[in-house]
Each structure stands twice: as C-alpha cells, then as structure tokens.
Amino acid sequence: MTTKEPIFFIQLTDIHISTPGKKPLFGLEMSDKLRAACAEIRTLEAKPSFVVISGDLTHDGNLEDYRFLKKLLDEEEALLGIPIHVALGNHDFREPFREGFLEEEPSNESYYYSFMADGLRIVILNTQVPGTHGGRLDDVQLAWLEQVLAEPAPSGTIIVHHHPVVKTPTVIMDDHLLENPQDLANVIEGTDVIGLLSGHIHYHNVGVFNGILCAAADGLAFGLDPSSSTNMRFIDRSGYNLITVKNGQMIVQPMTLPGEQRLLYEMNVSKIHAEA
Q1: Model-level pTM?
Q2: Which of 51, 56, 112 is nearest to 84 (CA)?
Q3: Distance CA 42, CA 232 (A)
Q4: How far is residue 234's CA from residue 111's CA, in Å, rounded to a whole number?
Q5: pLDDT tens string 143-193
Q6: Number of Cβ within a 10 Å radius of residue 47
C-alpha cells in the first residue's frame, strides 16, 4: 500500500446547495460559494489528495437538488483534479440522495463507507436521524466501525461525521451535538483513530475527545456567531479546514474566505424555546 507523509486534504461542510432558480437562502447563491472555495483551493501551493464534505449537501434535499449537486461536484472535481467525497447531514434525505446523486435505486439505507488515500484511512459515518435535526450513531454503524478499525491503517484513521462531539462556547449549540458520544468513544478507544472531523454548527470549533483531536469546520454556505448565547446570528461567511497528517498526527488549519461577513439574520432561540 502506498504511504506518504505529510498527507494533505480539504474538509468542506454545510454547503446547502439548491437547484438554480429557487429562491436563494438569505439571498445567497450557495453554488457560487462552493465554486469560490474550490477556486481558492486550486491556488494552494500544496495540492490536496482529496476533498471531503461533511454533510448538509443540500438545503431542501429533493431529487433535483441532488442531481444538480452531482453535476456541480463533477465539474469541480474535474477542475481540482482530485476526488470529492461526501457525507450526509440533517438537511439531507437518503432516498433522493441515492437516486439523484449516487444514481442508484432510491432507498432509506444509511450511507457510510471508508476509503484509503496515501495510507490514511478515512471513515465516513452517517449521524443523521431521519426527520429530525438531531444526530446519533446507530448500533449497526458502530458494529461496522469496530470491524473496520480492527486492522490499523499505515497512517492512521480519521473519522468524518456531521454532528460534533466536542462542547461549544454556548448552550444553544451544545444542543446540536451527537447524542451518544460515549458509544463512539467506546469503539475508537485503543484504535488507530487520530482525529474526528465534523460540521453542523457553522463555525470552527476545535477540542479534544478522549485524547483525540476533533475539529468542526465553518459552514461554507453561511457562518454562525460562536459568541452569541441567546440568539443565533447568521453571518455571510464561508470557511473550510486544511487538514495535514504528519508524524501520525492530525493537524488542522481553519480557513476563512475573503468577504465582508455581514449579519444576514438574527433569531432569538431562547424565546422560541420558551414558547414551545
């Protein structure tokens, strides 16, 4: 098996793509944001081995959105000259994803898999709970993950999943974390896992989970203000993570694309909870 270090790749997340012609979310054309990020990635001096997108591939999750997403990612993949791998998030729907993006028979089967790149193993998990915004790893995936990790990879394993496991600055976003992190911790303890990558919370958030580095990337479609404890403040901001694997460690460089970062919308979450 081919191995090399350092290994360099890109994590995007929460791209929220919609078919052209729909009323854009916050008046923003998310496909333009994806193209801008890929254009910046093409200027990097070190060419990444691949791109991984950690969920919320579309905003509405219908069939035409996934067909458009496939066309868009195929175009960007050709320009980048490297593969783009995807995971599902809470805004995604399995049947139209399988039919429109994978071009398979539609089914509600969970979407998870692993692949190797330069001796590094990437495991893509599906933390979405269909019909909710919550995140959980089911027993079938956990058993599969245990089998995958039974044999170490030459440069270790990085797990990609949508819902984070590391606490955030506020109670608001702590409500958006994986519901059963201890189940994941039990499976990865003593294995070759060197890092966890996630999204969902729309800002960079780095911490340690059972001694393993974890990084949530900023949303590509929009960002959230990590310091706001009562309101969800939606920001016209796009970010991603540069990931380097070197000497058996995952190293994360959070990146933000140029822009004015204006406030798009502010939602009082505490008031919504009080009325519910």
Answers
A1: 0.95
A2: 51
A3: 33
A4: 29
A5: 999 999 999 999 999 999 999 999 999 999 999 999 999 999 999 999 999
A6: 11
